[in-house]
Amino acid sequence: MLRRALEADPDHTDRYVDAPGQALPFGDNSFDVVVFSNSLHHIPADDMAQALVEAGRVLRPGGTLYVAEPEIEGPEDSMGYPVIDETAVRTEAQQVLDNLDPNRFDSLRRFTYTSEAVYESFDQWCDRVVGIDPERASALDKHREDLSERFHRMGERRPAGWAFAHNSLVTVTTAR
After folding, report:
1. Strand ranges inside the chain, DSSP E
2. Does the CA dihedral 14-50-92-71 come out positive or negative?
């Protein structure tokens, strides 16, 4: 995904840092906002809480932590199963968010929103699935025909491609 971001923004490659969320290479109180956009659940489960501690460390007092995570069980799960089954890691991410350290964060707000992902083709969806986790490639190849059938059945055909609803659970809090 970093490669894709760099390709999409070649004029600002110096603004991208490849680092684990649980060990950020930034000083204390360095940022006004830290965003986890559909990413906390991709951090190893044992490190998710530490990633939020790190977010609190690099946030200035009064800074905002914004975490958007996919709903625990969404329509994309039934479409992508067995290649994509993130139920356990999404549940873990929500549990970690439910237990944010009140000494680091306060004024917790939560809400849900629905967005739409549009893919020009099934192949573009496959590229994204594997781009997120390259270990999915062999399972995707093994189940390609079934996944293609579900993609075309569950997606809504639009001029720009195939549209899929995506529900996210958002947690917004302020650093102390």
Report:
1. 31-37, 59-70, 105-119, 156-158, 161-175
2. negative
Per-residue b or e along 80-115, where b marks 16 or more CB atoms closer than 10 Å to that residue's CB? beebbebeebbebbbebbeebeeebbeeeeeeeeee
Task: Please state, in angstroms and rounded to a whole number, the distance separating the CA atoms of residues 79 and 125.
Answer: 11
For 19-46, the pLDDT digits (tens) are 999 999 999 999 999 999 999 999 999 9
Name the pTM for this structure: 0.86
Within 8 A by CB and 6+ apart from 55, the residues are: 21, 24, 34, 36, 65
User: How far, CA to CA in Å, does 15 sit from each of 9, 35, 83, 113, 118?
Assistant: 10, 15, 32, 28, 27
- Closest Cα partner for 141 from 127, 154, 121, 161? 127
3 state SS of 72: coil
How far apart CA 93 and CA 7 sit, in angstroms, is 29
**In 3-state terms, what secondary structure has residue 34?**
strand
Question: Which residue do the tokens 């559909």 mark?
Answer: 38
Q: Does an H or E element contain 95, and which?
A: helix 87-98
